[in-house]
Amino acid sequence: MKRATRKASELEYLGLTVSADSPASGGLLIEKVRPSSPAERRGVLPGDLIVSFQGIKVLSVGDMASTGFSETPDLVVKRGTQDLPAVQVDMKGFEGAPPIDLLAAGLVLGIAAAVIALFMAPTAGIITWVERRVAGRMQSRIGPNRAGPQGFLVWLADGVKSILKEDIIPTESDQWLFRLAPYLVFMGVSATFVVMPFGQKLIAADLDIGILFVIAVTSLVTIGLMTGGWASNNKWSLLGGVRSAAQIISYEIPGAVAIVCLVMMTGSLRLQDIIAAQGGTGSTVLDVGGWPWYWYVFRNPITFGLFFLYFTTALAEGNRGPFDLPEAESELVAGYSTEYSGMRYLFFFFAEWANVFVMAGIASALFLGGWQIPGVSPAQQEASLALQLVGVGIFLAKSWVLIFVVIWVKWTLPRVRIDQMMNLCWKWFVPLSFGAFLLTALWMVAGVPKSVELVISVLTFVVWGAIMVHFIRRVQHNLRESRIPLHLNPFI
Amino acid sequence: MSSYLPLFLLFLIAAVLAVVLFTLATVLGPKNPTPEKLMPFECGGDSEGSRFVRPSVKFYLTAILFVVFDIEVVLMYPWVVSFKSLGWMGFVTMASFVSLLVVALAYVWKKGALEWEK
């Protein structure tokens, strides 16, 4: 049983530093003892093993939290193989960290949160521009090209225009809930940015429940859409809201099970741990860092399938095409957003576009190795600021590739019917995800040797490469056959 | 606790941003309400029938199924985090649990609860 902490942790109040490599049988190895600390005064030496604290067997640093219950807690340590009698550590003279530190830390975190909030707005805006440009190209039309170079500022113009629009709240709507709904949707999406691992150090809060938190807060969006649909007092809005809720909660099950499989392989819900597990730890360049065959997507055929399963459920949960039924304009007017106008309307769609980034970012963190650089170990990356920036660039590049795929899918496939969508979820994805879950568990418990795993990963990667080559050659062939003139310049 | 601080800050920033933008929109935008504009929108025509359609019972059924299966997923989380230390015993317990739910899914399927179009 590995109960080691991630790195050497300091137990400030006792004056102890415990090692990262604590024994598997439980207990914590003491690395350093601060001079004239409560622990030093009671004769605890480096190299001792903490066995129990306050009468509780110690398995992790978490067990050493000071409860403040006793001023002289019992600390049992082991020196070599010999048990020492329990020491009562005198906590008098112990002073907590000065509040100024907390204030400074809070300030740093606050700035991080502000930066992310400011990052989110432009990203969502730029996605709208990219989407319109790509859609324009796919439908053989030009797309926006007036505001700014290549229409790049069209998202800013949209924002300003929305502020200047009349804010209509229908008389028969539920005034309070009608106003509340955009807040819920917006806050649900923005909260996920807190745990978004942009880089090795660039994460606002590396929560230990990481991915579970993402799943939890995105359900605020469901509640927001339902609220908006119900409060509008319009039958199309209500139908749109109910549809969106049914769709999101249905697809949440296979999506969550797919994530559970990866958590099982990592043993942690923390997003940074999941990314760290997707890198090689060998010595040669090809054995170190985020080479594609260390990514979870190519780890084995099961995870390869899970990636596509997760990606499809994420499309459905984000109400993206071909699953954009809640706002199906040909049958529901505009779904849950029918009665909304101006800024409030924009907020629903702002949340949808921000959500595209969230799903792409989470997918690249879970399956595509996040900020891991090929050939560079996390320790090397930690030491150099330039490499960390490269890591952030790699994460963003992977995310934008996925964002492009999301847009590509939306403008390629026709919208599905609701019965097709529900069948796909309950009759295909749910059983498949359970099967993948059991297979992954079996794979892990059977203890496949590392070398065999590596061969399978490389093979999966090669198979994917072959599929991509075949795909590109088919496209080339079709283009030659149909004699369509090809305009490769995107700036016309 | 302090690691959750950015979360609350972000909630705050998001809420403040929304309040500011909505207030700006109300202040800057034109105000020209007419009874027709404030009616429920139905592609230009007058609204027909009751505003509250009763959603199909399938939606309720989906919600109930979701509760059952989502609770199961919630149970999986603590299990998968400690899976590496549980070994075969852990696998057998979870496999039997999941197979029970697969039986439940098969039953629901057979009963026709998953059929959207009848």
Unreliable segments of chain A (pLDDT under 50, ≥5 consecutive)? 1-6, 93-98
Compute the separation of the termini of chain A in Å. 61 Å
Largest interface: A-B, 84 and 71 residues
N to C succession of SSEs of chain A: EEEHEEEEEHHHHHHEEHHHHHHH
Question: Strand content of the residues of chain A, in percent?
Answer: 5-15%
Topology overview:
The complex is a heterodimer of chains A (492) and B (118).
Chain A: E1 9-11, E2 16-18, E3 28-33, H1 38-41, E4 49-53, E5 56-57, E6 74-79, E7 82-83, E8 87-88, H2 99-138, H3 154-163, H4 175-192, H5 210-231, H6 235-266, H7 271-276, E9 280-281, E10 288-289, H8 301-317, H9 329-332, H10 342-366, H11 378-383, H12 385-412, H13 418-445, H14 450-482
Antiparallel strand pairs in A: 1-2, 2-3, 3-4, 4-5, 4-6, 6-7, 6-8, 9-10
Helix pairs in contact in A: 2-10, 2-12, 4-5, 4-10, 5-6, 6-8, 6-13, 8-10, 8-13, 10-12
Chain B: H1 5-28, H2 57-81, H3 87-110
Helix pairs in contact in B: 2-3
Could you describe the 3D structure shown?
The complex is a heterodimer of chains A (492) and B (118). In chain A, helix 6 (235-266) runs parallel beside helix 13 (418-445) and helix 8 packs antiparallel against helix 13 (418-445). Chain A has two domains: 10-97, PDZ domain (Pdz3 Domain, Roll); 108-447, no CATH class. The model of chain A is unreliable at 1-6 and 93-98 (pLDDT under 50). Helix content of chain A is 55%, strand content 7%. The longest helix of chain A is centred in the first third of the chain and has 40 residues, at 99-138. Chain A has 492 residues and is α+β, with helices and mostly antiparallel strands. Chain A is built from 14 helices and ten strands. In chain B, helix 2 runs antiparallel to helix 3. The radius of gyration of chain B is 25 Å and the shape is flat. At the A-B interface, helix 2, helix 4, helix 6, helix 10 and helix 13 of A face helix 1, helix 2 and helix 3 of B.
